[in-house]
Amino acid sequence: MKKITTAVLLTVSLLAFSQQKMQVKTIPFSINSRTVTVYTSADSTDLRLTKTDVNLQFTDLKQPLETQLCVFVNPSKTFQTYLGIGGAITDASAEVFAKLSKKSQEEFLQAYYDKDKGIGYSIIRTNIHSCDFSSGSYTYIEEGDAALKSFSVAHDKEFRIPLIKKAIATAGGKATVYASPWSPPAFMKDTKNMLQGGKLLPEFYQSWANYYVKFIESYEREGIPIWGLTVQNEPMAKQTWESCIYTAEEERDFVKDYLGPTLQKSGFGDKKLTVWDHNRDLISQRASTILDDPEASKYVWGVGFHWYESWSGGDSMFETVGKVHEMYPDKKLLFTEGCVEKFDYSKLQLWANGERYGESMIHDFNNGTVGWTDWNVLLDQNGGPNHVGNFCFAPLHGDTRTGALIYTPSYYFIGHFSKFIGEKAKRISSVSSQSFLLTTSFLNQDGKVVTVVMNKTDKNLTYYLCIGTKATEVTILPHAIQTLVF
Question: Which domain, by its residues, includes 444?
């Protein structure tokens, strides 16, 4: 009896000690002794991720007035865990990179992937064989090879694979790399054409699922770990470039009966599979159709989305992302593509292009998104190369005539998030008292809070950054974005 009592007491003691250790790790957030550092980028100024205020002090503000503009941050209310921010390394990006001087190449790598010297990208998306931002259409097999005996990523070894490896190395040796297909090979489709939409023929479902496995195996042999896949880029868009149409039911069944099981059987069941990968407008219907089926849902990590839904004349549908998060809180949301379309060299420094990024990133994170992926990381002075003339903007352009890098406002807007939000940060509550001041906040693992504030107006504004009954006064310039670290 004495031995049993001793054992019980020892167990209770260990439990108590364990609970004490857990309690130490969950110390309530305190604003005491904290000061605020502010970084600003603003239109019609030279401010670009520039430190504009340091050591701002918190003082008492027990009850703000309705006349006082406020940003209320509550670090005790935590939400999703941050995955990262990044962009796509396409064939176009890699080909432009190869044309730059060694000095400009190093500048490019540091500008994106170095957290201290640049903005700290940690996500890389890439294409499975060709997309519109390739110099031409190609696949990894000989046409008609359903058995995939000729599968080879030799094409990518010239430009794309070397750049991805350099990006990962600059990012500290690790990055979240995921891949997306734009179209199966022509012979697998009902149109016998990689371009202009068309559908994957049922008799090639298994062969196409095997293709993803071959891609993962090939890239990992090259030293590029593949974190995840999306099933199909923009599965509801018939494009002039590589594209393939799946209804929600077709994508569900392909995942449930072919792609999911094939990844599992091949030892790649840990790869994160993302569905939809298209605009916010139809995201709810696609998510419901796939995720309401338990046999399909078990293979799905999350739902990806783009920002091009405004092509039809409406506004951005930010709230639909939040609705999906409400319905499926156990699934992740990932912004998989966005860029400013219709390239125009005269608009490279158009501030509104950057504001589009800032507004989308704030809303998307506030609606539960864990990661945010821009489109091409680099394009040339013509917004390409692109084999169907679909030229677009990128945050950085490389002028292949001079070798110079051109930094656009979009680069700095993205940097206000990616440079400061740390790995596995938690989003916390951040609410503005007025609609024209946008905000989101994260709590880094080191205990620092990162609050992003964006001024959409033409006016200088003064606002109070409020934490409980403490606040500090901050001024923000017209059409500016700020990151506050404290």
Answer: 35-80+428-485
